Structure formats: structure tokens, C-alpha cells
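Student: Please help interpret what follows.
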Amino acid sequence: MALVEIANVHKRFGQQEVLRGVSLCVNAGEVVCLLGASGSGKTTLLRCINHLETIDQGEIKVADQLIGYTRGSDGRLREERDRETSAKRARIGMVFQRFNLFAHLTAEENIIEAPVQVLRQSTEAARKKAHELLASVGLANKVHHYPHELSGGQQQRVAIARALAMEPRLMLFDEPTSALDPELVGEVLETMRRLAQSGMTMIVVTHEMAFAREVADRAIMMADGQVVEDAPPAQFFSAPVHARTRTFLARLLEKQA
């Protein structure tokens, strides 16, 4: 069953149309990697899914619920109240390029903040869950460390644990390794691999081709605000159909050479 349904989504910033009729579905348990050159619309699409960006046309549903909008009696979509959107967004985890941790809070405190304030969990229950999550991302010994005491890779793993503390049905990753030093990328990707193996539905904007090839169920190529290729990784990387995909992959090979 489709967990995410994106239908004919358009998004403009001023005169620039960044998304031009994007449609795709992501089934529960699938890992989908969004690939493409900078400016192709990948991050904008990701931000539209949880209504960090509004859309100008089309609709987005997660678990059969419109995100950010409600349909009136006339059939038109209207932006819903912040409280309603926040309740839906609570079940959509998002990990950004930058870690966005609260600098004045420890790893544990960063993780328990939203479950206590939004889900109304008890501090004791949230703290227990935070310890379990930190252990699951290999940071059991960093519970009381502040962000400045952690490496970039460790901070990103705390950010993943923080998102998981909200018990999301969907995880969105926006180039989660792009701000990391090369030697730290592997530890974050390994955490994401384990998360994928657990059955979490994931949409990942990434330039990590090895991760997409090994972990994704589908690789999607975006260009000029449109989906131009959507295929299993084996086909996507070995026999892409669209010329834009072939050009993109060839340029990546040149850079790696």
C-alpha cells in the first residue's frame, strides 16, 4: 500500500518553477533515493512532503492524509491550521544536512524534548527511550554529551535518534552526509542501512551512489523539477533509459576517476 502519494505537484519561488508536475508513490517499507544535479528540485520536494514548503498545485498524502491542507466542500484545497499540520508532521521524521541540534542541550535532552512536549510522554519514559535509541545508533556512551563535544557524524546520529523518538511512519533524509568530513560519512550511512533493514519507509536525497545502489528499492532521477527516471537500482545504474540519467551518472564517474 502506498504510504506517500504525490500527485502533480508544482512549486514556484517567484517566477522560478522548481517543481513541475511531480507525481510518485512510495510504498510502506520502501527505501527511495532521490538523485539528480543541484537545483533539480530534490530538496524542495522533500520539504513539501512534510509541509516545510507550501505547494502551488497538486496534492501530497501521507498515510492517506493530506499534509498541510484540507479539502473544502467545493473540492478545493485550503491550507490547514498549524496545529493540525504539526500533529501530522509529528509522524514524519526529517534529518537535515546540518544537524540542527540544540547546542545547550545534551544528546539525551535533544532527543526527549519533542516526545515530552508534543507527544506528552513522561520524562522518565522519554529518557528510557532516548537511551535505547542512542545505543541503537552506537552512542550509548554519549548520553550526557553536548553537541560541541561530538563529531559531525555523532551529531548526525543523534539527529537520527531524535527523529526516531517521535515514532515516525516515514523518515526523510536531506543529504544527511553532505556536511560531514569523508571519514565520518560511513558511520551515518551504516545507521541508515540498519534503519532500512528494520523496515522503515525512507525517502533519501543523496549523492552517495553506493548507498543508493545497495540499500534503495528504487532510485529516482530528477531534472528540471520533474521525475525523469524511476527504476530499481540495478537497472538505474547499469541500463538507465533517460539521457539525463546517463549524463548524470557519467559525470559522477568522471569525478570519481
In short: The mean pLDDT is 93. Residues 101-167 form one domain. Residues 182-197 form the longest helix (16 residues).
